[in-house]
Amino acid sequence: MKILHISGAKGWGGNEQQMIYLFPELQNIGVENIVFGVKNSILQKHCSNMNIKFYEARGNKLNTFKNYIYLNSLLRQVKPDVIHLHTSDSLTVFAISDFLFYLKTKTIFSKKGMGTSSSFLSNLKYNFKGLSSIICVSNSVKRDLGKILNEKTKSKTVIVHDCVSLEILNLKPVLNLREKYKIDAGFKVVGNIANHSNAKDLPTFINVVDEVVHKLNRKDIKFIQIGEFTKNTPELLQQVKDKGLEGAIIFTDKIEQASSLVPQLDAFLMTSQREGGPTSVLEAMLLGTPVVSTQVGVVPDVIQDGKNGFIAPVKDFKQLANKLLTLLDDENLKSQFVSKSKAIIENEFTAENIAKQTKEEYLRVMKL
């Protein structure tokens, strides 16, 4: 079986991490992976390291007229059994190319998350009749996407969750957080891994810290936020200063292999307002760090509130703060969350398991 994966990603995020997690496992079960993507992207670098054939887009972005033509010729050359689209712009390129050239190849689109709004053109694109299947990464994505799909397209949606690779259990920490940031042994360490995008809602993360430190009077906790700085960062730093939290929150910027640091955390706190996954929560669960999170993305699919983690509504910083302290102050509860969460990931969400589900969807689509 030969799959042509298409991605317009230049940087690195959850979508690209999932591809890299799945490729080796798909290969182990007889799936040949080929990638059509942007030249000099991080994805291309990883594909090169994994000896995966990578076809470079014409120009420095995917969505151009040259690439509509190139995709048509590439399909004749590669002859894939299925096209797997991983980004919004890859769906645009496919839809226009299919309209122009009638591509005929069965095609799957992976939908990882939903924005706050959807334009007329994106609604049209998601309902494109040339799609054979839409893989939704969580029940929440399937539900939200279903609001803009017609009935025929809605029937094409299936759920295949994000995954984690067991290889992360073998990662050696790239640094010692307590040593680098001079955190005394008497402090608990709560962490978060998220780039500084609007979807990650880091102002709520800051509000949780403010509630913990100033309202609940807990001075024995350090909060570490790991993630790539963006145009939002100056405003976040100003909020920290305005609330007098400079000694409580540490923003590290991007750290390579940040997941290797998760076992050093006493708790993982995620405050996102929109998510498909995120992979970081699944990784924390596998690595033995208990999770407190907003109710987004895959979280309700993997965490039962109070059973193997804590969940709170989006932006509810007071509930997040109180649940976080409940967790940190109860070692028995922490152990319960860790053991139950790790079992869930190992039994259902490993790359090996999700690769098998993905291949089953490829086979199903090929028979349509």
From TrEMBL:
InterPro entries cross-referenced by the UniProt entry: Glyco_trans_4-like_N
Domain Glycosyltransferase subfamily 4-like N-terminal: 12-164
Name of the protein this chain belongs to: Glycosyltransferase family 4 protein
Organism lineage string: Bacteria, Pseudomonadati, Bacteroidota, Flavobacteriia, Flavobacteriales
